[in-house]
Task: structure prediction
Amino acid sequence: MTGGGPGIMEAANRGARDAGARSVGCNIVLPHEQQPNPYLDVSLTFNRFFVRKVLLVKYSICFVVMPGGAGTVDELFETITLIQTGKVKDFPILLYGKEYWRPLLARLWWPRGPSAKRSSASCSWRTASMRLPPCCRIDW
Result:
């Protein structure tokens, strides 16, 4: 299941379809951007972000997050919050692109100063394979 759009989402949907799995996309209606990609077996289109996020979180067993913009960070933070507060079942979150995510994670999990508190989450960088960039798995 992906956001249903182009680029990396399209690649994931194509990979699922090529492997014989059902390819599902949760698309969002935007004024100038996203159209459903051609590799979807099931294409759901939403007018509201929150409905899309509910389905993406409810039916996921893992989140793979690639470098992106404000929408990507919004979905990541909301998912982290839902897991931390026990509102959804814990599942792995994998962040690809070590250099992209490092500054943000440094602010979240390794704050500085005498009054700083450390979160219950931790992030360890691992390399999934020689062809992929280092990946951070957020462990709770």
